[in-house]
Amino acid sequence: MDVWWVTEAQGAEKRDAGELPELLARPDGLVWVDIPQCWPGDEKVLREVFGFHPHAIRDCVHRNQVPKVHAYADHVFVVLHAPETGRNGHVHYIELDQFIGANYLVTVHGPTNEAVPARVALADTAGVMARIASGRYRPASGFDLSYAVVSALARRQEAFVEVQTREVWQLEQRVTGGHLGDPEKFLEEMFRTRHGLVAVRTMAALSREIYGRLATINRGVPERARPLLDDTVDQFNRVYAIADGQKDYLQGVIDFYRTRSDTKMTIAAERLAVIAVITLPITALSSVYGMNLIVNDSTHLGMLIPVLAVMLVMSVGLLIWAKRQGWW
């Protein structure tokens, strides 16, 4: 657990967790508590020092599959997710929980998959803290600080869409250029990229709904914070629109690839049908007359030559007919 005392004059000062009651009582600054992962000792601080609801604390300990928002008398609790690329196209949901009060912000990370490095989960808060430490940002309230953290999370979603968009362009170039390689692997790449876009679009859509709901809540939300909430909704809406547009564009690439593949299969089937039609009379006549006309002791040339001529005429005739039908 990292405890920071943030003031407009001095920036951020790291403090001990034992000073929290005193710091929360002071009107001249802002308390920021950042918890990389909620352990029993951290639960005790959330319960005894801040007096948070047990259900909200439980949500910090366990993973949440969807974003959440709960409003209390003097604070709100929000759960959000950010995307992180995993192996084989898997998208990790990086959870960020927030307790937002007038003069404090408590951010809780995780739990996260063991395959995700700790620095990935802490990226958004670490970036905001770097801005405060350098003097480039001075939050005046818990909602100001939360706005900066959530904006960083929205930018992470947007950066994830940009990475997926780069993959979409490469796939589109391979489809139009005909450089597909292994068709099975190529299809896997396309659907893997599509999955990434759908995942981040879902995150942005749910986050937008959460902050849209938060903007209409009267409890625990000061009036001066509502423009920040509206802007947050707009940020998530923009990420959703970009991801949705790229997903539709990739779907068009997939449809084009499938249509061209289906067309090639249809042409191949037609050519095979022509070959079957041409060889059918030969097969039929040879099966009827072959054993009788060509034998080991003697061959009936008088019968063999007319039969071969009939086979040739029938095959050529069927070939000409197939050509007139436009089959090849």
Helix content: 55-70%
Rg, alpha carbons = 34 Å
The secondary structure category is: alpha+beta
Instruction: Indicate the proportion of strand residues.
Output: 5-15%
Helix-strand pattern = EEHEHHEEEEHHHHHH
Shape field: rod-shaped
Please report the number of helical segments. Answer: 9
Number-wise, the strands total 7
Distance between the termini: 74 Å
Largest sheet: 7 strands, mixed
Q: Whole-number average pLDDT?
A: 83
Low-confidence stretches: none
> How are strands sequenced across the largest beta sheet?
2-1-3-7-6-5-4
Summarize the structure.
The protein is of the alpha+beta class. The protein is 61% helix and 15% strand.
List keywords for this structure.
rod-shaped; 7 strands; 7-stranded mixed sheet; alpha+beta; single chain; about 60% helix; about 325 residues
Describe this structure in words.
The protein is rod-shaped. The protein is of the alpha+beta class and 328 residues long. The chain has 9 helices and 7 strands, in the order ββαβααββββαααααα. α5 crosses α6 (142-177), α6 (142-177) runs parallel beside α8 and α7 (183-216) packs antiparallel against α8. Strands 2-1-3-7-6-5-4 form a 7-stranded mixed β-sheet, with helices on both faces. The protein has helices spanning 20-25, 40-49, 54-61, 118-121, 123-133, 142-177, 183-216, 226-293, 301-324, and strands spanning 2-7, 11-15, 30-35, 68-71, 75-85, 91-101, 104-109. β4 (68-71) and β5 form a beta hairpin.
Q: What are the SSEs and their pairings?
A:
Blueprint: E1 2-7, E2 11-15, H1 20-25, E3 30-35, H2 40-49, H3 54-61, E4 68-71, E5 75-85, E6 91-101, E7 104-109, H4 118-121, H5 123-133, H6 142-177, H7 183-216, H8 226-293, H9 301-324
Parallel strand pairs: 3-7
Antiparallel strand pairs: 1-2, 1-3, 4-5, 5-6, 6-7
Helix pairs in contact: 5-6, 6-7, 6-8, 7-8, 8-9
